[in-house]
Design a protein that fits this description.
The chain has 4 helices and no strands. By secondary structure, it is mostly helical. It has one domain. The longest helix has 35 residues. It starts with a helix and ends with a helix.
């Protein structure tokens, strides 16, 4: 019965799980984990030194994410030039 409901009404896509993106890698994972730890420290103590460390880490994470996205995009474009029929799979994964 649930299958029929899904066929008639459709399904809504929810949020992706962390790390379920086309550009996610270990460097991004580690940087974000470190940023979260620094955010926790900043919230607990609230000192200016912790705020400054968190802010600098936040900027580093932005750079790490941008680098990972650029590398993944270049890798996908290289693969796409080798296999032109994979364009639809690539577009679907980037939604």
């Amino acid at each position: 019965m649930l299958k029929e409901c899904d066929e008639v009404c459709g399904k809504k896509k929810g949020r992706r799980a962390q790390g379920d993106t086309w550009w996610w890698n270990e460097d991004v994972k580690e940087a974000i984990a470190r940023k979260k730890d620094l955010h926790e420290e900043m919230c607990k103590s609230g000192t200016e030194a912790n705020k400054a460390r968190y802010k600098s880490m936040k900027n580093r994470v932005k750079k790490v994410v941008a680098k990972a996205m650029k590398e993944a995009a270049e890798r996908e474009l290289r693969e796409l030039s080798e296999h032109p029929n994979k364009v639809f799979k690539l577009v679907k994964s980037m939604k």
